[in-house]
Each structure stands twice: as structure tokens, then as C-alpha cells.
Amino acid sequence: MCYIGAQSFKKAPLSKPFETILFGFAFSPTLKMNIMETSRIAHFFGAKLILLHVGDKTPDKENEIKQILAKVKHQGDRVSIQWKPGRPEAVLLETCQDLKVDLLILGALQHENLYQFYVGSIARKLTRKVCCSVLLLIKPSEERIPCQHVVVNGLKDEDTPLAISNAFYVSHALGAKQITIVEEIRSKEVAVDIKDDRSLKKATILKERLKHREESRVNGILKSVPREFAQGIKVKTQSIFGKRGYSIGHYAQVARADLLVMNAPKKTGLIDRVFPHDIEYILSDLPTDLLIVRKKI
């Protein structure tokens, strides 16, 4: 574990990664909470919000949405409603592309066997195919519950700097007090057969070297994070040895994180359906709200 000081961050021009947000909604029991939560997020991000229902537009449905929006504190003229027929997955993918959406928000239930409408298999397909970042909400609330702790992956990957930068932006916008950057180290990297004190010492030294290596790499990434986004936020790194995806999901749950930020999955081949990707472990049992960061295509 390593705590990072403010000197690690640089003075850089501020940028807003999420200027257009799309919320794909169904008429479920959590509709009101999801719209209230999504509207707050759009307000804190200073973003335009598009509410999209894939299905028929009826007077009753339209009236229900208008009644909910009437109770939204930060609505203004930056909230619009769209109704489109078709298959949810295809319509959402096409709309995100056509409207240059930066963030797709979907309501989700925590456990895979309880997923409804946009979650489950559809969510899996969207996280692989959509052109933008995705936020899955499992605990929306009508009244604001402040975000306190954000966990973000720090694995060695070309997209990790973007995920960490977005984690700081979101933390800054939502007023979070702590960010933990989790470096998942595969157990096979310290595959030492423990037979005696000597082999135990060897394994311990190897683990410490790997932790130091990962912390040095993350420190390098942090230098590119704008200082304004890090102000007032306690930052620490945490090395974990175990199965990628599963380990960070378990850590986020134990640490009671309010948000988990992960790189978007890349591959879509047959081998990825046979052998689960890092993100699959998290999607099957969401530990908290999940932000999947994707570089804009």
C-alpha cells in the first residue's frame, strides 16, 4: 500500500470526458430512482442528458416520465426524451454512435440471475460493442447519497491512464474523498513452491519487488492527472495477488467503494466467450456501481 502526495500531479488544462450522456430506460419499479440519479450525475458533469426508451410511446408512458422529470432539481433545457422502436441492443448502439454519446448509463440489479431488460446478456454485448463509456447503476436513489470512495484498476494496459484520469474527473465532480488504485498481480507471477523458510523468503521478496514495480508504474501515470481533479482527494495504491477482475471486484466490495472504474474489454472472439474476461467476473456479481471506460472510437 502506498499513499500519493499532491506533488505527483501536474497543472494541466481541464477537460470534460462526458459532455453527452444517454440513459436507456425501461418502465421498471426503479425508473424514478434511476432518472433522479442520472439527472444528478449529468448536472455534476455539466453534461447534456438524453433519455431513451426503446419501445412504443404512449400517453401513459409519456405522462409518467413528465411527472418524474417535474421532480428533478437540475433539469433545465439540457434534458431531452427520445422514443425508438426496435431491439434494445441495436437501437442503443446506433443511437450512441449517431449522437456521439460520451457515456451510456444503464440501470442494473446486482446479481446476474436477477438482471432485467438492459442487463445480463445485453449489458455484456453493449460493454464490448458500444462506442463510448458505460455506467451501470445498481443503487440509484431519489435523494443524493454522496460518493465517498472510488476504486479504479491500475493494471498494465494502454487504456489504464484514461481509466485513472476519468476516475479522478468523476471523483472531483461528485466530491469523493478517496481514490484507491488497485494493481492486480497474477498469482502465477509469484509461483514459488513454498517448502521451507528459504522458499518462503524468496516468495516474499518477489512479491515486494512486484509491488514496488507496480507502484512505480502507477506513479508515472498519476503525473499526467490534472492537479485540480486531485485536490482534496486522498489517493493510495493497493497491490492484490489473485485472479484479475475477481480480485478487484472483491476488494471494491470489502472496501465499500461507491464506484468501481474499469477499462473496457477489447476482444470479442470465441476464446473470450469460453474463457471469461476480467470484466465478466464483475458483471456477473456487481460489487457496486460500475464505470467501464472506453476510449472514444
TrEMBL record:
Superkingdom field: Bacteria
* InterPro entries for the chain: Rossmann-like_a/b/a_fold, UspA
Q: Which organism is it from?
A: Flagellimonas nanhaiensis
Q: What is the lineage of its organism?
A: Bacteria, Pseudomonadati, Bacteroidota, Flavobacteriia, Flavobacteriales
What are the residue boundaries of the UspA domain, all occurrences included?
Answer: 64-136
Q: Which family does it belong to?
A: Belongs to the universal stress protein A family.
What is the name of this protein? Universal stress protein
